[in-house]
Write a structure and sequence with these properties.
InterPro entries: CHP03086 (IPR017520), DinB/YfiT-like (IPR034660), Maleyloyr_isom (IPR017517), MDMPI_metal-binding (IPR024344). This protein is mostly helical and about 200 residues long. It contains 7 helices and 2 strands; from the N terminus they run ααααββααα.
């Protein structure tokens, strides 16, 4: 039987963070160096669309397009779009068929079982980015953090781990799991927005 991973808790958490993001925070910096909050939210809209379609094996423009140099942005109705995308993403990956066979995301062909883990990891990390940028509390469920850790840890010492993640940041072995996951992605768990002025 195909193992599935429940996205519900993490998608609801990200939806809650987005719902509490104020319009005045859209230009705030984020832990992603090039992104303001608006770009981060635009990226979340794009990746939830792509990975929803990857789960459905609905391959086409949304799954064939890799990351570009252009900064993503938000549409006027971004809250509704992201909320709908997150719910559809969770529903799509709830199907055992999503985890079977091959699919595509970001222009890369990969097994459905890996694509699902990548999608959940994206939500965990970018949820942290959004929470940090907007000063909101962030506590993903243990299962989602475990998926991220298992995905990121094997490549932590690989200098050719690709452009998606920076070098792993050292943290104590007894650091909270969220801090270890964040550090494995190349982010500093202690990141806070720079003080203006």
């Amino acid at each position: 039987m195909t193992e599935t991973i429940d996205f519900t808790a993490q998608t609801r958490l990200v939806a809650r963070l987005a719902a509490h993001t104020r319009d005045g925070e859209l230009e705030a910096p984020t832990p992603c160096e090039r992104y303001r909050v608006r770009h981060l939210l635009g990226h979340l809209i794009g990746l939830t669309t792509a990975f929803r379609d990857a789960a459905r094996k609905n391959l086409g423009p949304t799954t064939d397009t890799g990351p570009t140099a252009a900064l993503p942005d938000v549409p006027a109705d971004w809250r509704g779009v992201l909320d709908r995308n997150l719910a559809e993403l969770a529903a799509a990956w709830h199907s055992p068929a999503a985890w079977q066979g091959e699919t595509r995301a970001g222009g890369v062909d990969l097994p459905g079982a890996i694509a699902g883990r990548v999608a959940l990891n994206e939500l965990v990390l970018h949820g942290w980015d959004l929470a940090r940028a907007t000063g909101q509390p962030y506590a993903p469920d243990a299962a989602s953090l475990g998926v991220s850790y298992a995905l990121l840890a094997p490549s932590a010492d690989d200098p050719g781990r690709g452009p998606l993640f920076g070098p792993a940041v050292p943290v104590p072995d007894d650091a909270p799991l969220l801090d270890r996951v964040v550090a494995l992605s190349g982010r500093h768990p202690s990141w806070t927005p720079p003080q203006s002025g």
